[in-house]
Write a structure and sequence with these properties.
Blueprint lengths: L2 H16 L18 E5 L5 E6 L9 E9 L7 E6 L5 H9 L2 H9 E3 L3 E4 L5 E9 L5 E9 L2 E8 L3 H9 L12 H13 L3 H19 L3 H19 L7 H13 L3 H11 L11 H15 L3 H18 L19 H23 L6 H14 L5 H17 L3 H18 L4 H16 L3 H18 L5 H17 L4 H12 L5 H16 L4 H26 L5 H24 L13 H7 L4 E8 L4 E7 L2 E7 L3 H13 L13 H11 L4 H4 L4 E5 L33 E4 L3 H8 L9 E7 L6 H7 L2 H12 L6 H12 L7 E3 L5 H6 L5 E11 L11 E3 L13 E3 H4 L8 E7 L9 H15 L3 E5 L5 H16 L4 H15 L11 H4 L2 E5 L18
Parallel strand pairs: 10-13, 13-14, 15-16, 15-17, 17-20, 20-21
Antiparallel strand pairs: 1-2, 2-3, 3-4, 4-9, 5-7, 6-7, 7-8, 8-9, 10-11, 11-12, 17-18, 18-19, 21-22
């Protein structure tokens, strides 16, 4: 990732983590929330308990404070404070209207004027109808006369019955002498909102989780947390409630940070008319701030600067204490007012973000002063956590880079990494900053120091099984390549290190899918052991984040806290082991790297692995064979390779004018760049395992040309498939994991197939993809037409493999529900002859999905999609899953290769060894021939890779003989690829195949 992109990521993460007060700014956390006395039920009949609590500010002596916990929520739903002194009507009016308690209340909630009323038993009271500034939840406050003097209380609106019982001294089981007029005033609001303390607790837990994940720069996971929090609010408060804006803005910022700019922009537009009416007065400033961050991600720093200046002014108006400089020696306390605290944090971040924008706009010299201002704002308020200091240093280093101050930038990055190591040791921010430091050391010609930084960052990434954007990892490979050239004796070890380093890079959509799939396992209704183990791992991660936050906010050394962190890290390691034991396939859902030795041990005789990494300006290709690693520099970057892939794809897919003229020059150029440099290592390998990168995921490698060929004479062209059987894998780790699963299926039955689906109707698609939110999705989905040729394809495959007649499930019978009812682990081949929808960016169907017929009478098309994360719930023991209607370059196909990679991982987890898929819409006759001949050869004992190659070679050899010469064009023979291992040599064999017939 270029420096400018990384700085935006840091800005977004810091703001989302800090721009809103944490839940305990509104209520007090308590680890012993469930250890109190019974207090009856609230207005939603949720059981409540009460325990001693922390005193609230008051003008009178506080006799007792109690906190109420309802519905299992681990934070107080209400706080009841008993005061000393007179409690006449004038006293109640005064307390409700002004004073310390009312000021403390107003900091946290927005209240209407007090209403005179009575509570149960007839006691006089003053009721305040309020709204919580955080989340917009209905809140109540009450002032009444208790047995010993005035009682002041506030809480979630549903807690009012419990507040009244505690205020009057009644026990939980005692009936009131008369009805509560106060409760009657609140009934209409309570009924309309239909929420409980559990809803509030769930919302705040999700918001806190989103902040934690954002702080560690896990934006895909933070997106899911904020999306879930917004869903809770919208269900209770309504979609257009202005208090949903906070979750909406956090969600938008995380989408923008993942470069899902259209989705982020739509959310920001939706938030604009709502923000001025939100209960939190900082919301309009935050909207300006987040629009600025979105402008930065969109490459418009000038717009960002203007928006940030407006945001700063809004924040400053809410944080008057920032106008006063702290005097020497003066001790600053944390601000008690959460609105003011939020504004100060926002103001500091807005200034830092403006420094980023100025740097990008070519005004880097102005940035350091703004960073210093941002830190001064925090320091004067007593708010300068290590995470924010680290980000400030990283921002200042970005300005130094633009100004050519390489040494200063490197030193600042190293200091920032040290801050991150305190705030969140062993997490992504520390690793990112170490890689940035290494990059600057390389630019300064200090390769040894660069390698030290890169290796320290790489150790974190491997330990946490996370990755970095490609642009950050390529300089590490560059340093290793230069070191290998300088020290030939160490070259073999350094090239092996290059192989491992390349796997530390992640593409964003792959990382997102893996995170989604892992999260789904934690809530899956499938294997309970897996569910429990994954949840245990998630809990261990959460515990570590909380401990890191505690250490970041503490001052000085804390040996006891360090011991707790060490113990929590040990628990996390144990939890990882439990997940691996409960679900061996879980490794398919990790972005872990494997070393070259592990790959070499997994490869068989006659096999070689080819992998690559494409950076912005250059890349590297690497090969493993016979225990050796070879590596070569690619002199062009991702954009140039993507252009070649696009040329090849355009010349391979049928269009309005028929089959196009094939671009032989592009196919030969890609071979020259990626394969030819490693010819000495790859020549003679029977099977070539390819782990592509980026745009290459959408291309069958067998169609690369190893030499010149004429587009007018493709018969006999030197295709790479003529030299090797080719296996594609999402990553080298995938190959190692699949090889550990054995050589082939032990399922008793040969085949089950599904095809000729009935598309959902236009009305069903419209309900699944509402036009106001999912217009793009709707247009994509409604273009999914029938595939009548798949009926013959499935029937022919069933007959070839000798499966029973009812093992071909076709037409309206091909539903997702019917698919799930089958015992798929009893079949060696599972054939899904239907669309596999592989979107690049969809807001309403964000996962790759398989399309089936909707069940009879279904109101919506939702039930016709089997999402990749739902594939995890299937149980398989298949050599092959055949998906014969994929299109990685079709509508919405940007990133389609990555989506296909995610779908493959899901099937591998479910128990498949290989996927045979198409990369574009294929000719019916060629598809039927390829599938049938591949299955025939595999049934006869060939490996899946050799069987597919044999079928493709049959078409090539027969083109111009028993087939038209046009069949030598890749449109006909090349779209099918094998992803994963499939059936391998050594598996039990059936009878030898009959000779091929055309």
């Amino acid at each position: 990732m270029p420096m400018r992109t990384l700085l935006a990521a840091a800005a977004l993460g810091a703001l989302a983590a800090c721009s809103a007060p944490p839940p305990d700014a509104y209520v007090t956390r308590s680890a012993a929330a469930t250890a109190g006395e019974p207090a009856g039920t609230d207005a939603r009949n949720e059981p409540c308990q009460v325990q001693p609590g922390r005193a609230a500010p008051a003008d009178r002596q506080v006799l007792r404070t109690r906190e109420v916990y309802c519905g299992g929520w681990t934070q107080p739903a209400a706080r009841v404070v008993e005061l000393a002194g007179a409690a006449g009507p004038a006293d109640l009016d005064a307390i409700a209207a002004s004073g310390l308690w009312r000021s403390w209340l107003d900091q946290r909630v927005a209240c209407a004027a007090p209403t005179r009323t009575t509570i149960a038993g007839g006691g006089e009271a003053r009721l305040l109808a309020c709204t919580r500034r955080a989340g917009g939840w209905p809140h109540v406050a009450i002032v009444t006369a208790g047995p010993s003097g005035p009682v002041v209380a506030d809480g979630v609106a549903t807690s009012l019955p419990v507040i009244e019982r505690l205020a009057t001294g009644r026990s939980a089981g005692t009936a009131a002498a008369s009805r509560s007029a106060a409760l009657e005033l609140a009934v209409a609001r309570l009924s309309a909102d239909a929420f409980s303390a559990t809803d509030v607790g769930r919302y705040e837990q999700l918001m806190a989780l989103g902040r934690d994940l954002n702080q560690t720069e896990n934006f895909a996971a933070a997106e899911d947390a904020y999306r879930a929090a917004l869903a809770v609010q919208e269900r209770v408060l309504g979609r257009d409630n202005p208090n949903t804006v906070t979750a909406m803005l956090h969600l938008a910022v995380n989408l923008s940070n993942q470069r899902r700019l259209a989705d982020a922009g739509a959310l920001l537009d939706r938030a604009t008319p709502l923000a001025p009416r939100a209960a939190d007065p900082a919301t309009p400033a935050r909207l300006l701030h987040y629009r600025a961050l979105h402008a930065l991600n969109s490459g418009d720093p000038r717009t960002a600067i203007a928006l940030l200046e407006q945001a700063e002014a809004r924040y400053a108006a809410l944080a008057p204490s920032t106008r006063r400089e702290r005097r020497d020696g003066e001790t600053s306390e944390l601000l008690a007012d959460p609105v003011e605290q939020s504004a100060i944090l926002g103001l500091a971040e807005a200034k830092r973000n403006r420094a980023v924008a100025l740097t990008r706009a070519g005004r880097a010299a102005e940035a350091p002063a703004l960073v210093a201002e941002a830190r001064a704002v925090l320091r004067n308020a007593g708010l300068e956590p290590n995470m924010m200091v680290g980000r400030a240093m990283r921002t200042e280093a970005g300005a130094d880079i633009r100004l050519g101050r390489t040494e200063a930038a490197a030193q600042l990055m190293e200091r920032a990494a040290g801050r991150f190591a305190i705030a969140a040791p062993g997490e992504r921010p520390e690793a990112v900053t170490l890689f940035l430091a290494g990059q600057q050391r390389m630019r300064g010609g200090r390769r040894a120091e660069a390698l030290t930084a890169f290796r320290a960052g790489a150790a974190i990434l491997r330990a946490r099984q996370i990755g970095l954007p490609v642009g950050l990892v390529v300089p590490y490979l560059d340093a290793l390549d230069q070191e290998a050239a300088a020290t030939p004796g160490l070259a073999p070890a350094l090239r092996a290190e290059m192989f491992g380093a390349a796997q530390l890079a992640q593409r964003s959509s792959t990382a997102r899918y893996v995170q989604q799939a892992s999260a789904r396992l934690g809530v899956s209704e499938g294997n309970q052991a897996v569910q429990g183990a994954v949840r245990g791992l998630q809990d261990a991660d959460r515990e570590l984040r909380e401990l890191f936050a505690e250490r970041d906010s503490s001052s000085g050394q804390n040996a006891a806290l360090d011991d707790r962190i060490a113990a929590a890290q040990a628990r996390r390691a144990d939890a990882e082991g439990q997940v691996a034991s409960a679900a061996p396939g879980y490794r398919q859902l990790l972005l872990a790297s494997v070393d070259a030795d592990s790959v070499a041990r997994a490869l068989g005789r006659g096999e070689a692995l080819l992998t690559m990494l494409l950076g912005p300006r250059e890349g590297f290709v690497m090969a493993v064979r016979d225990g050796r690693v070879d590596a070569r520099r690619v002199p062009v970057g991702e954009e140039a390779v993507a252009a070649l892939v696009s040329r090849i794809r355009r010349s391979s897919e049928i269009g309005a004018g028929g089959v196009p003229r094939f671009d032989t020059d592009a196919a030969q150029e890609l071979h020259r760049l990626l394969v030819a440099p490693l010819a000495g290592t790859l020549d003679g390998a029977e099977t070539l395992v390819v782990a592509p990168d980026g745009p290459l995921l959408a291309l069958p490698f067998g169609m690369l040309l190893a030499g010149p060929a004429s587009p007018d004479q493709l018969v006999g062209a030197p295709w790479l498939i003529r030299r090797h059987a080719i296996v594609h894998v999402p990553s080298p780790q995938t190959l190692v994991t699949l090889r550990a699963a054995g050589t082939g299926s032990t399922a008793p039955n040969p085949y089950i197939g599904f095809g000729d689906f009935t598309p959902p109707s236009g009305a069903q698609f419209a309900r699944a993809f509402p036009a106001d939110r999912c217009g793009t999705d709707a247009r994509l989905a409604t273009g999914l037409g029938r595939l009548p040729g798949t009926r013959a394809e499935v029937l022919a495959s069933r007959q070839l493999l000798g499966a029973a007649a009812d093992r071909a499930i076709l037409g309206a019978d091909f539903t997702i529900a019917n698919l799930r009812r089958q015992r798929l682990d009893q079949y060696r081949v599972v054939h899904l002859a239907t669309h596999a929808l592989l979107p690049g960016e969809l807001s309403c169907l964000p996962e790759p999905s398989i399309v089936a017929s909707p069940p009879g009478g279904a109101p919506s098309a939702d039930t016709a999609f089997l999402k990749a994360s739902e594939v995890l719930d299937l149980k398989m023991d298949a050599d092959l899953v055949i998906l014969s209607a994929c299109n990685t370059g079709g509508p919405g196909g940007e990133g389609g290769g990555e989506a296909l990679s995610g779908l493959a991982r899901a099937f591998f987890y479910a128990g498949a060894r290989g996927l045979m898929v198409t990369h574009w819409a294929v000719d019916d006759a060629a598809a039927a021939l390829t599938v049938a001949d591949t299955l025939r050869r595999q049934q006869g004992g060939a490996t899946s890779a050799a069987a597919l190659r044999g079928a493709q070679m049959l078409i090539l050899e027969e083109a111009g003989r028993n087939l038209p010469a046009a069949f030598a064009h890749p449109y006909y023979w090349a779209p099918f690829v094998l992803i994963g291992d499939g059936r391998r040599a050594g598996a039990a064999t059936a009878a030898a195949p009959a000779p091929a017939r055309l």
